[in-house]
């Protein structure tokens, strides 16, 4: 309980300890997380995603300054991609974000992307809760990518931004439709470079195709030059404007429910996955089953129902212990 | 049983009926699928993926001709993307593939991409099994994309190809590392266009970074011009060479186990997801839980364990009925 109280007071060391515990799935950490949960739901949770190389980390760096000027405290959860091809550059950016290390109002936490099938991990959501409970006014979730994991991130945040750059022209068509549809704000970074106009045009074209209810939010396009810190104040203003829209329209309540549902189902998915790949696998049952399927002795549907049968028994046992 | 026998004899109508039943998750269809399962595992299953616009469908069209020249029968499972931005072009390509409609040795089946979180659907794997049971020598699974879903596809196929085109230079860095690492064959289509050399260079660079055990398969790069049917014979030969490598090295057996494991876990995931979003949701229990989480009355971990508890009871009941 001492740790929980400290975190609620904004203690960085206590928060970092809990975050490590949550990543390692220590039972004590999950218990503390449960105790913090009633104190969450106050922060403005922002999602920032986009292809690698568009300058997201530099943008977040300047965005932190912009929010701090407004006297808002900021937490950043940066999900590192596991790609060996982009890992290097991203690491450099992370170091840049540590510029804020002497500022008590800023807390940056990097984490490896984990989870059953490479999607949004349940730890990421827990990190947001911890920063929220610490009292951070704004929590930014940064992810690198344009696939299914990022579609999932859009569901757990209040405001979602897709960051592109002047070079993104040929990348736009690869981006998952779900991200394009969910983005509340589009950022075109490196706006002084050739190609920026083309990217803006493509985004405008897509937005024209999107159906919009009357009085609903009109997604905006913000031009930035993050390296020169140009456009960051406008972007911060746009996020705040979006939050005000969410609150005034009653949309915020709906988003919080979508987020709760996403987290709940993600947790179920993770418990099931952990059971299959850990408890069930360690007893050799999974390998036995896989071998029988591979040699066509049993079919995969019947086997799946068997696992679920065991699963129920296993967790009944577990909840009895709690 | 009559239907099952017909499918084993290669009857297209019976197969199409079962495929529809499987997509609609009819219990009778799942039972028939189970009866067919022992007769699967013989086809050479090929995965073909890549960004939209690289010419995959045209390539598959010419690849079908190449395999047919070798007197091999071919099945194609084409997973349509749900993207509203690329849907049109793909539809045109599908129509093109229907050129083979008068050829009994070719069976093309398009399906919408479905599934819990947008990943590989369990129906896709079932379609492969049905074509396999029909006696198709080669089954091609075509997906459009470069994200997590495609990483999953690489796990259920024997041979995996990533299709790029001369225009893909800027797209390469967005492609999920898992796809690049899993691809056995890289195809650079539109090889006569400017930029092809650049793309080949990027692929070679990545392959240089990949660690390779001695005597393991050396991923090849095949240049094609699908519209002119150039390179398709070489590509077919390369797939056959890869299959021979898999068989000779014992790698095929390993891949069949990876595929069985992937299908098994995917089935568990789908049963759990269906339970949460259907049975559990229809009784209003899911909404109740979500509302309590959104209003911070209960925490999402405790709620998830409750769902799993119900899940076990529900499926115990269900397997009792079977």
CATH class of the largest domain in chain A: Alpha Beta
First-to-last CA distance of chain A: 17 Å
**What is the overall shape of chain A?**
globular
Largest interface: A-B, 82 and 83 residues
Helix content of chain A: 55-70%
Strand order of the largest sheet of chain A: 3-2-4-1-5-6-7
Q: Major sheet of chain A: size, sense and barrel closure? A: 7 strands, parallel
Listing every helix as H and every strand as E from the N terminus to the C terminus, the arrangement of chain A reads HHHEHEHEHEHEHEHEHHHH
How many helical elements of chain A? 13
The overall pLDDT average of chain A reads 86
Q: What is the CATH superfamily classification of the largest domain in chain A?
A: P-loop containing nucleotide triphosphate hydrolases
CATH architecture of the largest domain in chain A: 3-Layer(aba) Sandwich
Summarize it:
The structure is a homodimer of 322-residue chains. The first copy, chain A, has 322 residues and is an alpha/beta fold.
Strand and helix map with partners:
Two copies of one chain form a homodimer.
Chain A: H1 2-8, H2 12-23, H3 27-36, E1 44-50, H4 56-69, E2 74-80, H5 87-97, E3 106-112, H6 122-134, E4 138-144, H7 148-156, E5 159-165, H8 177-182, E6 185-189, H9 196-209, E7 220-223, H10 232-249, H11 251-282, H12 285-294, H13 300-321
Parallel strand pairs in A: 1-4, 1-5, 2-3, 2-4, 5-6, 6-7
């Amino acid at each position: 309980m001492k740790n929980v109280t400290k975190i609620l007071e904004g203690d960085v060391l206590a928060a970092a300890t809990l975050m490590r515990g949550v990543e390692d799935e220590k039972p004590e950490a999950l218990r503390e997380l449960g105790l913090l949960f009633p104190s969450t739901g106050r922060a403005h949770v922002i999602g920032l995603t986009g292809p690698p190389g568009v300058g997201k980390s530099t943008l977040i760096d300047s965005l932190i300054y912009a929010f701090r000027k407004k006297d808002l405290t900021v937490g950043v959860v940066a999900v590192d991609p596991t790609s060996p091809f982009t890992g290097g550059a991203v690491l450099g950016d992370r170091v840049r974000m540590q510029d804020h290390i002497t500022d008590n109002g800023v807390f940056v936490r990097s984490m490896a992307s984990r989870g059953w099938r490479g999607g949004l991990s349940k730890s990421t959501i827990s990190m947001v809760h911890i920063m929220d409970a610490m009292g951070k006014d704004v929590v930014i979730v940064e992810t690198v990518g344009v696939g299914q994991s990022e579609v999932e991130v859009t569901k757990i945040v209040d405001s979602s931004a897709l960051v592109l750059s002047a070079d993104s022209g040929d990348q736009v068509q690869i981006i998952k439709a779900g991200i394009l549809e969910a983005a509340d704000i589009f950022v075109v970074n490196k706006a002084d470079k050739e190609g920026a106009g083309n990217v803006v045009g493509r985004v405008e074209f897509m937005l024209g195709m999107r159906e919009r209810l009357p009085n609903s939010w009109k997604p905006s396009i913000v031009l930035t030059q993050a390296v020169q810190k140009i456009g960051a104040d406008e972007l911060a203003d746009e996020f705040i404007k979006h939050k005000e829209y969410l609150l005034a329209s009653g949309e915020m309540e709906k988003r919080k429910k979508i987020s709760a549902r996403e987290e709940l189902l993600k947790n179920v998915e993770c418990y099931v996955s952990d059971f299959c790949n850990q408890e069930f696998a360690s007893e050799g049952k999974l390998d036995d089953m896989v071998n029988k399927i591979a040699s066509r002795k049993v079919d995969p549907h019947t086997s799946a129902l068997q696992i679920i049968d065991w699963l129920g028994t296993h967790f009944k046992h577990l909840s009895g212990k709690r």
